[in-house]
């Protein structure tokens, strides 16, 4: 069931009249629901950045698990979305499903064929969608599940074991980085209050700041953003006191490897002695602030927008030399903005679009390139990347002291 809206709930399988009752119930209670029988489509949806809830319907729990973990195995080397998985199975497999739920092999299960409790179905899916915003690292253990599933093949058990290991590795790494970063931020604030240069791993900080919200517990994410804002405040205040310039900008000494720019643009802009006009579209306040510091020492006319509607309004009102467009926006997608602009007759029909992606998954970026975008950069933005942009498009943007 194709949709112009990115789906939150993906129903996989379901080919009987009893399954249709479950599908109708989910569509009645939830927006942005997609149904598919194609596991290739499931893999494609997993590669999209937005978090999702997958509901696998099967004649047995084994069929549901095989379908899900095969998809996970196919995409394991690519960045993929945070997601939850719920299985919908006949009642006779409830014991196995409960053990799989306890051992985090699945996030929950539904008894269907027929549906016994409509209220529980809605509650389970609502709970999983809510928890996507407050991810916690699960204690993955297969012991109990294996005892209840001795009839499963060695191949399926190996597939499940590998998939759980990848999940645990991914979640644990970012959790560890975020905890360390939070401690270093507290120390950095104390250092700058004492008018000393803060010692901070900006690589880890930026990785944490641009991480999708569903990869970190809400309290940790909010604490890190609050402390970063506080650190920037003290830094601005210190610079103003030392220089007497009320509008000074602060750029930390970030030393990161350049991700490079992938580009298919064939047009060359004429070098202009006037300030180039650049539109930066970014919905995250902190990412936007950090990006603005990189432009602060260049002679550019920088406009910003935090959502798709605002971006389209500015794009239709003024011609820009370059547009930097975040892939994911709260009210739209960067791909839609690019398509609307290039397909229209406005002043930026031929303006280069550079897509900004918070991870290295290229599925949506590739879609934007096919639509007409020029290239992409992996966030966070870096000085070297911006230097290459200005050189590639022959923008003046002279640096200022």
Automatic annotation (TrEMBL):
<dbReference type="InterPro" id="IPR050595">
    <property type="entry name" value="Bact_response_regulator"/>
</dbReference>
<feature type="domain" description="Response regulatory">
    <location>
        <begin position="277"/>
        <end position="394"/>
    </location>
</feature>
<dbReference type="InterPro" id="IPR001789">
    <property type="entry name" value="Sig_transdc_resp-reg_receiver"/>
</dbReference>
<feature type="modified residue" description="4-aspartylphosphate">
    <location>
        <position position="326"/>
    </location>
</feature>
<dbReference type="Pfam" id="PF00072">
    <property type="entry name" value="Response_reg"/>
</dbReference>
<protein>
    <submittedName>
        <fullName>Response regulator</fullName>
    </submittedName>
</protein>
<keyword id="KW-0597">Phosphoprotein</keyword>
<dbReference type="InterPro" id="IPR011006">
    <property type="entry name" value="CheY-like_superfamily"/>
</dbReference>
<dbReference type="GO" id="GO:0000160">
    <property type="term" value="P:phosphorelay signal transduction system"/>
</dbReference>
